[in-house]
Amino acid sequence: MYAFWQQWLRQKGVNLDEQGQQPIEAHLRQVAALERETVLAPLDNFVLLRVEGEDAEAFLQGQLSNDIRQIQPGEAQYSTYSTAKGRMLASFLIWRHGNAYYLMVSADIAPAIAKRLTMFVLRSKVKITMDEEWFVLGMSGPQAAHILQPHFAEAANLEKMRVAEQGDGALLRLPHDGYLLALRRGGGLETDISKLENVVAVSPAVWALHDIRAGIAWVTGETQEQFVPQMANMELIGAVNFKKGCYPGQEIVARSQYLGKMKRRMFLAAFDQPLTVGCKLYSPDLPEQSIGMLAAVCQVEASRYLGLAVVQSQTWDAGVFADEAHAIALRKLDLPYSIDPIAE
């Protein structure tokens, strides 16, 4: 983690190991704080790719699943990047700042994604870099808007997926009503935010609970090339535009949409034993084969976990399990949106 925020976490009593883990008692205290207090989370599990240049818009339009032309100043969108077979290599949260597009992506896959995108620049006037000038944080809770108001006048009235900017930072309102902060490293705003006293520090693993409950899964190294966008409900969070032109995997994505109901979808699920992202899932309805995969997970109580499971929809009646012996059961919960396909 960036040393500045690593030190801040330690001063706040949050001590993470090299894998970003901490004692379970501390983790659960932070989960409880996330539920009712104002929290701040340094998100070193994400980085920003900066895409800039005269042809940046046209280049991204030809690579990503969403319509990049719809991102006006002050707006943001989710998007995905796929192989020619339509399997997702990455998912992004994208906004514009100055003359550049910023693509927030899972840190573990960022170098490979930047390299792959650069391969297709060819003669286009585009520059793609992993931007180490910025660091991202999450803030949520009852006093978040009030706390941010002195730094971003629009904070209290900022609509979801809208962005407020100032010289040293950008503030984005997330679908779950939390905020994403992109702060310039070493800038005055970063210093000001770090001095806030009325916030509880939480780890990236705890902050992930917001996205899980919102039904937003991030592509990571464990889930690369496992899902077409609709399997992970990407079109339902506005990450796919079916009316735009071609991009890698577009034909597969469009065919999956228009041939009828998706066999696999992503569901919010609860379970009682620790599981990891990428864990294969099973059902007696389809024995001797995997019927899906866990895309996200967070422990919420001593023996209770929440996760996002991509599975064949028909298998819930017979049961979904994390083992072939069908001993570790997953329980389906409600997502904040309908999983019925969006008509275009």
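the 2nd protein, sequnce then structure:
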Amino acid sequence: MISRLRPLVAPLLRFYFRPSRLRVRLGEILIALVLVELGARWWLGLGTPPLYLPHPTIEYLLRPDQDIQRFGKHILVNHWAMRSQDFPARKTDPSEYRVLVVGDSIVNGTAVIDHAALATTRLGPLLAADLGRPVQVANISAGSWGPGNWLAYLRSYGLFDADLVLLVLSSHDAIDTPGYGPLDAKQYPVQAPILALEEGIHRYLERFVPAPLRIWQPPPGPPPPPPTEAELQALHTQALADLRALHELVQGSGAGFRALLHATQPELTAGLASAATAGDPGRAELKAFFAELGVPLHDLQPFWAAAIADGRKVYTDFIHLSAEGQSLLTELLRTEVRIDYNARSTDPP
């Protein structure tokens, strides 16, 4: 059968793959790749991920001075590695009121939340209207930051003449300590890829390829063993020591200090101490710790539960806030500021 078809097929193959035709095909493929690259870069924003810097004490932080568009969202990082507009380190107007909002990816919003939709961006104009004075709100955060990262950042950069520090934390932060290991290039890239297609394939499409077929990757090693009780206790002790030192740093500056305890969806639906971390000491322990410090702590678990019952879309996944969730967080932060502002305004000299 093959021998009968060969005289018919051979001329067609020679015609299709003759040098002139082959050059045309290669040119068409090249043009298609260029168009896809340009579309991925300018339409999706691939090729320009938010970049990070390793740091000897903070562990890592967003690279300062970034202004990018990604997946239709505006990502702005100022000179102080904050997701905020630039502002001077010290007040230039004695009437200015400054709020530092410190946290992890909940406050940061990640690349799926536009700069304008962040709770911290919304908060500034509202407070300026409430207080009748200039207001600067700073977003000091990065994904997976915990007590040790927050403490190291404020020790390195200072408190920027803050009048109030609002800490947004979760129950897993009770055992969160910096690891100082190599950064995961996919989650915390330190340099932009050469091609947008390169990022699209390796960071997003690759996950849909079954692990055994990823021949370009070395085989994964065995998963690390779960932490022992002694290791968990050591993490817990260090995290609380970092939170205590953070409180002392803020208290020594004369700024107010208040905390908000975020809740994951599993915590709302099942009352779990954590969605992902076995051995997490849970919310009650953090509440007791902040009560011991004398720091007001607002548990957001009932608030998020009520918002969801009211039909609000609070989350994008099991833990992160949607744009609507960020809007709700704005009001929670606003309330905390007004409580502290009014209390400090009526305190006797």
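The chain has two domains: 2-44, 52-219+227-346. The longest helix spans residues 19-44.
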